[in-house]
Amino acid sequence: MGVLLEVEDIRVSYGAVEALRGVTLRLKEKEIVAVLGANGAGKTTLLRAISGLLPLVQGKVLFCGRDIRSFAPFELLRQGLAHVPEGRRIFPTLTVEENLLLGLYGVRHLVSDAERKKRKEWIFELFPVLRERRRQLAGTLSGGEQQMLAIGRGLISRPKVVLMDEPSLGLAPRVVQEIFRVIRQIHEEEGVSLLLVEQNARKALSVANYAYILENGRVALEGKPQDLVHDERVRSAYLGGSGIRQRLL
Amino acid sequence: MRVFFEQLVNGVTVGSFYALVALGYSMVYGVMKLINFAHGDLFTLGSYLGYTFLVWGAAWITERAGLWWGVLGAILFAFLANAGAGILVERVAYRPVYRAGRLPLVVSALGMSIFLQNAIMAVWGPRFQVYPSDLVPVASLRFLGLSLPLLKVVILFLSLGVMFVMYWIVEKTEFGAAVRATALDREMATLLGIDVQRVILFVFTLGPALGGMAGVMNGMYYRSIQFSMGWNYGLKAFTATILGGIGNIPGAMVGGVLLGVIETLLAGYIPGGGAWKDGFTFLILILVLIFRPTGILGEKVAEKV
Fold this sequence. Notes:
heterodimer; A: 249 residues; Rossmann fold; B: two-stranded antiparallel sheet; cell membrane (chain B); amino-acid transport (chain B); BCAA_transport_permease (chain B); membrane (chain B)
């Protein structure tokens, strides 16, 4: 299996504060890699650095073997790298359909009209509620629907790799279920590779093939999910601790 | 009744200049969150470019093709030349300071305004210049017993047509959606593959182009132009922008036309009102800011979390 994304020993700073202090990870074809960690561990910074939104102080990021800095950030989508950022970031005064189709903007010269329609239908099948609401302004959607729209907008260009930042943040358990159902589905049916940043470690580990745990801007631990869930440190720090809660879960 | 109707036509015509200039303010503000202080002076520049075109070039066109082609040529010339000026201004005054934040950008815009005003004065002189009367059509249209100067009608339909095209581009095309997306969230737009720099260049090109067009129309309408008139026009168009809802294209059109009509009617019906014309404008600005700061069409969609 080919490696799609290689992050090699990157450092990123906000002024004097080092947010990433030498992070290395890789994402292979048809893989879901989860990045876990507490608030401020550097998860979002990692994704933003990969997308070229933050300058690297050191190290490099290779996408399909090419240095990511040889592209302008807006060119990455066309190369097959999509980013569904934290907080959904949908355009509230544009309609649901306009939001969705903007996901194709970066590849507009490569996609025929018939193909556009097909892609739109595909997203509407993944998230039927978006079809019902397609003429509504995106700002009138519920939080869960907005997240679905954000994910749909990220997927519609059929990227090779999707960077997904906290898709379950602040959502009701039922919506989280649905979003993870879709993540599983696109992974199994479409073979999309995913770098998934999550606070909901249990959920993330249930879909991931491999996981990294970030602490203070470094990879503290990595491994296959089945190994990590039995690791005592992981259990206590990220999976709800031991003792009474553990037994309840 | 006749007076009212004539004043109304005047108001809508003047309002359509305001609307064209307001459109430029609104687009630039929408994408850059910048009040482009140089915009009024680009309007003046367009007015002078159209003047020069009429004086030097139009005789040739007028002789061969007729008066109207000279007029349309001047408008087109100012549109294109001002688009070029807009690109130049963006390159020289704005692009170098994008990274420095919003305040340096505003200061740079103010500096550009002063520069343009003085450059216009240096080139064309500080006195009033007068659009040559033999090159501006005076024919009138008879309509329901009223006489409508054809020039006003042409100006009106031309500006409405241009505004409609603008509206169509921004609201109905894919690139327009990209412009609106960039205005809302530049970083997200980048992540979707939108070349934000191109969107910025688009608004800084088209805004001044529309302003330049309005400048020529204004010159033909009032005949005399002066190097410092952009300041006043800029403020009025800015008022129109606020009135309609800033960052909103239909808002700029509605605000511009409405401001022109209110101003003209108040000036026409209140004794001695002409002298207070500008006062009315700013009274409107103050009232809008107090009672409806988002403008007539500027409604915010509640963002659910």
